[in-house]
């Protein structure tokens, strides 16, 4: 199964014993995110380190591990879909919707606002688990 992944999911990768980390590491799935998500992760680095109580070195190690299980896609590959995605209410999520449109993928996100658009199917973690367990 393939999914585009929102940054709110990717950030949970840094939490010890993260349930979603197990899903992201699962070999039966392929995950894609815009390179923009890496910028968001880096912007939130200090907050992640503070909340998870990990060192900067561990943060960088986990970020490297994350890049092994998630393919980060450059903007140029989905740029043609940005205009179509601009109709969504939260413009900060445009890259994720555009990426999902480009590759015709559902998007894994726990952002309730994402459900307000109808361009791509959104799965919360709970919905994804129900789909996996069917």
Structure commentary:
The chain has 134 residues and is α/β, with parallel strands linked by helices. It has one domain: 5'-nuclease (Rossmann fold, 3-Layer(aba) Sandwich). Helices cover 51% and strands 13% of the residues. The chain has helices at 7-10, 19-25, 35-43, 45-52, 56-69, 75-78, 82-85, 94-103, 125-132, and strands at residues 2-5, 30-34, 70-73, 107-108, 122-123. It has a five-stranded parallel sheet with strand order 3-2-1-4-5. The chain is globular and about 40 Å long. The two termini are 13 Å apart.
For the biggest β-sheet, the strand order reads 3-2-1-4-5
Query: What's the CATH superfamily, by name?
Result: 5'-nuclease
Number of domains: 1
Which overall shape is indicated by the principal axes computed on the Cα atoms? globular
Helix-strand topology string? EHHEHHHEHHHEEH
The end-to-end distance, rounded to whole angstroms, is 13 Å
Task: Give the uncertain stretches in residue-range form.
Answer: none
The CATH architecture category equals 3-Layer(aba) Sandwich
The average pLDDT is 93
Strand content: 5-15%
Query: How many helix segments?
Result: 9
Helix content: 40-55%
- Report on the biggest sheet: 5 strands, parallel
Counting helices, strands and paired strands, the structural category is alpha/beta
Report the count of strand segments. Answer: 5
Q: Classify the fold: give the CATH topology.
A: Rossmann fold
State the name of the first-level CATH class.
Alpha Beta
- Whole-angstrom Rg: 14 Å
């Amino acid at each position: 199964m393939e999914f585009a992944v929102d940054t709110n999911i990717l950030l949970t990768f840094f939490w010890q014993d993260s349930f979603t980390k197990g899903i992201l590491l699962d070999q039966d799935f392929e995950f894609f995110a815009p390179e923009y998500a890496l910028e968001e992760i880096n912007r939130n680095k200090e907050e992640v380190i503070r909340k998870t109580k990990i060192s900067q070195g561990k943060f960088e190690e986990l970020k490297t591990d994350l890049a092994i299980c998630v393919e980060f896609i450059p903007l140029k590959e989905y740029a043609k879909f940005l205009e179509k995605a601009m109709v969504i209410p939260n413009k900060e999520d445009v890259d994720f919707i555009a990426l999902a449109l480009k590759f015709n993928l559902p998007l894994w996100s726990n952002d309730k606002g994402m459900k307000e658009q109808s361009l791509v199917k959104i799965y919360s973690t709970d919905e994804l688990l129900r789909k996996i367990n069917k």
